[in-house]
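Researcher: Sequence recovery benchmark, item below. Answer with residues only.
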């Protein structure tokens, strides 16, 4: 036998990692764990426990407490009590604690890795070389942010108590992603690990004690979905951070709507792995291994859809099969295996069910010839070819070692296929052509794009989704916003909504727009649309003109797709000044008008691709044209709001300045180049949300409109604005300014009418990517609740009134941040 033959036939022997240290740690705890609350172990109030299992042999490892509402309440109270002192400790002292935690994770890294592999089933090579080092890296990185908080985030403060709910696929890493930024920014936390994998969180609780972390800063409550639900529902939690299924994310979005809780969601994915014909196919094969067989494919950003250019598809499939044949599935503690065990029988059943469905729907299944060990929960690497783009296995998250391969011909087709999903978590692009790679990176809708690499993570880079993959970022500077809030919010007056609950109804004046300028009673006195009728001209004629007021000779229409259009209803509503005098009429927009406006906005998405310089020019032009008509606008403000002339002039002047401000920002809202390790840099690119609904504040009818719409369009969004309900005429007067300022049709659409009714239509609309709402709490709640349909981004005031003249409350980077989402593009760089 020659050496070459030996290499060919040689079997790997097992290289087992000893489980002994983990077993000893478990024994030391009597294989039973209580909750970690207020710095000590506390028995569950209801006395309930459940078992966690080892997926490699299906045997129970230990019993952990099942958290009840009472346990969650105790933990939240401990976190609340610890909050003021932790916040006031200052960044440097918190940095020292985070640094100590990082050191302790490193010191116990082998124990953490073994325990993680036993509880979760992931290969020890992964827990040892990827999960745990990244955990330490996260705490080091965020020790730095704690140190820098005061200088880098002036005017911001911690949110308070954060409730954090994490999944089982990266138990300790997800803990680190949640706890490190929260603590760095001065929050205290209650964390609920997943029921399948609670153990490393409990070991982490112990190192919190070892680090001398003040009691109550970190609390760990174990349990299942009921415990998570109790945490999300607790009234004294200020923020919820969740990672898990889109289904549960949607429940939490609905449940927390209107409570004022800050929310970040990191949900599922169906990430494309795009291979162009000039890619290095050997690298691609290893890339696929990392994309879908890393962690048994139980990865939210797994490259679960291979999209390959037709010319190289056959060659790639052949190489993939050869590689799959050599993958080794087995004992997670064996350093020579590639794929470990599936976390739980339900997850295994889910994978088996979806694979059966793939076959039933006509795809071709391929699995290696060898079979998996029988005593644990194992599943072999699986490749589907001949997959139809609409097939279940091409659309639904499988969360297992199963990949669906589809082909494309042109780059355009690749983009269309890549974006043919409701998700948008990640994508990877394989080509030797840098022009092509960066062109596609910009077009794929995903929060993370890896070029010629995949599944790279680092604390310095934000991670998070577009679309139904959730919102908010974890990691990097962009992740810190989830754990801080502007200081002024704490003392802002809150509008509960009673005074605004009346919705406008069509007034006695016709929608045909002739005469008014008359005094009538309040809106409540006017007649409903059915009674008013479209042609009640005679009624209008009977109104006496109010003394000293100019007659108003037109009814403001809607502004959709760059044109003034009549409302679908054919009705208008009376606009009264604060003394109840009729000062004009505005169109009564409805659901249909919003739909038309959304359609028009979608046709205007070319705006996002115009240069930032061009967008700046348009905003300057708007300012110039508003300036030319400043007196007219000031008079109108005085007329409709009863403001004194000085205040009205000030509102116009400030609006002009705001347009200048966002013209200035248009080409300066830069991204960043994150200093991620490895052989690359990460480009953090702020991208527009897309089509946005903006429900403007009722007060400051011109300034509120300009201050919200201008930042959104400066960033490249197309907008459907619902202006002040009580004083819409400033926005409708603005049509002419828009028309004369080169704003492309459809970029700004204006629908007047019942604010809350229109807001609800926007929030529920599947083709709207984001909604801002500045108004009473009740409306905020509705917007957040209805946004759960397509998980659109929302930014609502929770009733807090802003001083729109104030340069911090009424303008600035907070607006730009909410008008954009960060895409992180990992690009090979240097060596
Ligand atoms: P899940 O979303 O139910 O579990 C994630 C966490 O949420 C766990 O800690 C769980 O206890 C908790 N939870 C469950 N119901 C809750 C509720 N109503 N309120 C608050 N917290 C709740 O995910 P599950 O059932 O473990 O897995 C099902 C599927 O979800 C997987 O097959 C996979 O497709 C997807 N998934 C995605 C993850 C990701 O990272 N994107 C992670 C885990 C699962
Ligand atoms: Mg387990």
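Model:
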């Amino acid at each position: 036998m020659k050496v070459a033959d030996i290499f060919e036939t040689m079997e790997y022997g097992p290289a087992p990692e000893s489980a002994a240290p983990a077993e000893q740690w478990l024994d030391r705890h009597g294989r039973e764990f209580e909750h970690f609350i207020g710095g000590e172990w506390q028995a569950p109030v209801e006395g309930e426990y459940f078992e966690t299992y080892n997926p490699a042999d299906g045997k129970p490892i230990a019993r952990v407490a099942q958290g009840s509402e009472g346990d969650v309440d105790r933990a939240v109270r401990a976190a609340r009590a610890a909050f003021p002192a932790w916040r006031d400790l200052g960044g440097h002292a918190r940095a020292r604690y985070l640094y100590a935690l990082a050191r302790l994770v490193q010191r116990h890294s082998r124990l953490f890795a073994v325990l993680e592999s036993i509880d979760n089933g992931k290969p020890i090579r992964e827990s040892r070389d990827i999960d745990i080092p990244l955990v330490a890296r996260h705490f080091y990185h965020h020790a730095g942010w704690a140190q820098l908080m005061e200088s880098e985030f002036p005017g911001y403060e911690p949110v308070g108590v954060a409730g954090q709910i994490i999944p089982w696929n990266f138990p300790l890493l997800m803990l680190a992603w949640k706890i490190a930024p929260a603590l760095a920014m001065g929050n205290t936390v209650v964390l609920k690990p997943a029921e399948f994998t609670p153990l490393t969180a409990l070991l982490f609780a112990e190192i919190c004690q070892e680090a001398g972390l003040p009691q109550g800063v970190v609390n760990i409550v174990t349990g299942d979905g009921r415990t998570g639900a109790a945490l999300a529902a607790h009234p004294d939690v200020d923020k919820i951070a969740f990672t898990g299924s889109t289904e549960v994310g949607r429940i939490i979005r609905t449940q927390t709507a209107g409570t004022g809780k800050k929310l970040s969601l990191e949900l599922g994915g169906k990430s494309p792995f795009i291979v162009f014909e000039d890619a290095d196919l050997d690298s691609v094969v290893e890339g696929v291994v990392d994309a879908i067989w890393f962690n048994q494919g139980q990865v939210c950003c797994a490259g679960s859809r291979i999209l390959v250019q037709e010319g190289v598809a056959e060659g790639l499939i052949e190489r993939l099969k050869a590689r799959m044949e050599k993958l080794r599935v087995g004992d997670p503690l064996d350093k020579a295996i590639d794929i470990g065990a599936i976390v739980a029988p339900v997850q295994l059943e889910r994978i088996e069910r979806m694979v059966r469905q793939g076959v039933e729907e006509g795809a071709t299944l391929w699995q290696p010839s060898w079979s998996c060990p029988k005593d644990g929960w194992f599943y072999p690497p699986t490749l589907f070819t001949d997959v139809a783009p609409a097939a279940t296995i091409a659309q639904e998250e499988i969360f297992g070692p199963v990949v669906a391969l589809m082909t494309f011909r042109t780059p355009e087709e690749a983009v269309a296929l890549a974006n043919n999903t409701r998700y948008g978590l990640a994508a990877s692009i394989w080509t030797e052509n840098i022009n092509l790679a960066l062109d596609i990176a910009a077009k794929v809708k995903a929060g993370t794009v890896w070029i010629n690499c995949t599944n790279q993570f680092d604390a310095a880079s934000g991670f998070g989704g577009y679309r139904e993959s959730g919102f908010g970022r974890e990691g990097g500077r962009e992740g810190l916003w989830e754990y801080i809030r502007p200081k002024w919010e704490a003392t802002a007056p809150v509008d509960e909504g009673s005074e605004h609950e009346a919705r406008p109804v069509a007034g006695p004046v016709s929608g045909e727009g002739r005469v008014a300028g008359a005094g009538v009673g309040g809106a409540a006195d006017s007649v409903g649309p059915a009674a008013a009728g479209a042609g009640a001209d005679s009624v209008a004629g009977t109104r006496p003109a109010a003394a000293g007021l100019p007659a108003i000779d037109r009814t403001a229409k809607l502004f959709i797709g760059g044109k003034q259009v009549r409302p679908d209803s054919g009705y208008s509503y009376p606009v009264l000044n604060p003394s109840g005098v009729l000062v004009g009429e505005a169109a009564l927009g409805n659901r249909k008008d919003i739909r038309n406006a959304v359609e028009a906005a979608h046709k205007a998405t070319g705006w996002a691709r115009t240069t930032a310089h061009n967008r700046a020019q348009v905003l300057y032009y708007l300012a110039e044209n508003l300036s030319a008509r400043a007196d007219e606008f000031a008079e109108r403000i005085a007329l409709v709001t009863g403001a004194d002339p000085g205040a009205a002039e000030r509102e116009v002047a400030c609006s002009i300045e705001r347009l200048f401000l966002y013209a200035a920002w248009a080409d300066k809202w830069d991204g960043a180049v994150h200093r991620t390790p490895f052989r690359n840099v990460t480009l953090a690119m702020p991208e527009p949300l897309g089509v946005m609904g903006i429900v403007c504040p009722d007060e400051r009818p011109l300034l509120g409109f300009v201050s919200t719409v201008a930042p959104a369009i400066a960033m490249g969004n197309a907008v459907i604005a619902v202006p002040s309900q009580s004083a819409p005429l400033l926005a409708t007067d603005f049509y002419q300014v828009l028309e004369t300022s080169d704003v492309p049709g459809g970029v700004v659409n204006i629908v007047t009418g019942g604010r809350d009714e229109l807001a609800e239509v926007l929030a529920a609309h599947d083709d709207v990517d984001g909604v801002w709402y500045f108004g009473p709490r009740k409306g905020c709640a509705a917007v957040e609740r209805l946004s759960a349909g397509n998980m659109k981004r929302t930014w609502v005031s929770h009733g807090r009134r802003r001083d729109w003249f104030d340069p911090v409350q009424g303008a600035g980077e907070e607006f730009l941040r909410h008008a954009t989402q960060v895409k992180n593009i990992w690009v090979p760089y240097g060596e």
